Amino acid sequence: MDKASHLGVVLDLSPKQWHLAAQPSNPHPVTLSVFLSHLLAFLNAHIACKDENSLALFGALPGRSAMLYSSTMPVNEEEIEPADANSYRPFKVMDSAIMKHIAEEIEALGEAETEEPIGFVGALTKAMCYINRVTNGAGSTSSAARNDDPAGLADPRILVISVSPDQSSSYIPVMNSIFSAQKLKVTIDVCKIFGGESVFLQQAAHLTGGSYIDIDRPDAVLQYLMMSFLPPPGLRQLMSVPTQDKIDFRAACFCHKNIVDIGFVCSVCLSIFCQPVPVCSTCRTKFPIKTLQRLNASRPNAAPGTPARAATPARAATPAAPANSLPRSTSINPHAVPRNASNGSIGAASPPMHMNGGPR
């Protein structure tokens, strides 16, 4: 509890999604400017909790990501508006710097760029790289000094503020980021402001021990931020933090990048496919024709207007073929970390899944 806390914030700055969130037809509309006023109050509270607390803010913009503010970032005093008698100078400097950089990044977006996918993975990766630098120190001397003083180590966490839906094509990079966060012992919290449930962010919060909250009142987001996300991970074991009632463990197939309820997993590299394939596109393993026929026969009936029957998992192997050359239809092993044969990157990992898509 005496440790300093580092907070990395990944802010979704999709102009299209924020425009939809501000529509009067929503039950509780919220504009980006109103939300930023709540966010700045939350960031000020984090800095005020302890002098050694650090902060980094990253923006996920269409097609790219950018660092908007960090505690170590030099500030040009000439660009900061004079503070009045009722404002605290460090808070004023931070608020002005954040608002200035957000305005510059949004104004720099072209009309065509606003339709590009949001650069969430890049912002999340930059946040973890910054955490690695903060916790380990820039040089060997500072790193050794920090290791000698456990109280001086930062307690890192990342808060993701999302208004955009999942991007199926980013499944593998997101899972790589989650595994990196686990290795760095970084807690990932998720605050869903607008849009449907996010499958990938639910898994990120669950696997790293964080909280996932889909708020009911976006216009009162400050209360959610203060009560749920302000305490650092070291204090949460003494508090009752919100937990997820249900978690969607579905994965995205490697062939079409779609989130699937039923997956067919390569028994060699654990790549996931939405339908049986004769050759694995990742490790180039060839599967017997009889096995493909058996897997196709076990698939549920997807014809329109007919109820889908529950499919049973295919056997791991047949006596006529080696076990390592057969695909398996089914459940995904949460402890198996598939790796791409071409670049060595982690492919996918997810808790077990029934054939009908429901978590066990």
From TrEMBL:
Function: Component of the general transcription and DNA repair factor IIH (TFIIH) core complex, which is involved in general and transcription-coupled nucleotide excision repair (NER) of damaged DNA and, when complexed to TFIIK, in RNA transcription by RNA polymerase II. In NER, TFIIH acts by opening DNA around the lesion to allow the excision of the damaged oligonucleotide and its replacement by a new DNA fragment. In transcription, TFIIH has an essential role in transcription initiation.
UniProt keyword annotations, A-Z: DNA damage, DNA repair, Metal-binding, Nucleus, Transcription, Transcription regulation, Zinc, Zinc-finger
A GO cellular component annotation in the UniProt record: transcription factor TFIIH holo complex
Predominant location category: nucleus
GO terms (BP aspect): nucleotide-excision repair; regulation of DNA-templated transcription
Region annotated Disordered, chain positions: 298-360
Bias (Low complexity) ranges: 299-323
Subunit description: Component of the 7-subunit TFIIH core complex composed of XPB/SSL2, XPD/RAD3, SSL1, TFB1, TFB2, TFB4 and TFB5, which is active in NER. The core complex associates with the 3-subunit CTD-kinase module TFIIK composed of CCL1, KIN28 and TFB3 to form the 10-subunit holoenzyme (holo-TFIIH) active in transcription.
PANTHER family reported in the protein's UniProt record: GENERAL TRANSCRIPTION FACTOR IIH SUBUNIT 3, TRANSCRIPTION INITIATION FACTOR IIH TFIIH , POLYPEPTIDE 3-RELATED
Keyword Cell membrane in record: no
Places the protein is found: Nucleus
InterPro entries hit by this protein: TFIIH_Tfb4/GTF2H3, vWFA_dom_sf
Source species: Phanerochaete sordida
Protein name, UniProt field: General transcription and DNA repair factor IIH subunit TFB4
MF terms in GO: zinc ion binding
Higher taxonomy: Eukaryota, Fungi, Dikarya, Basidiomycota, Agaricomycotina
Family in the record: Belongs to the TFB4 family.
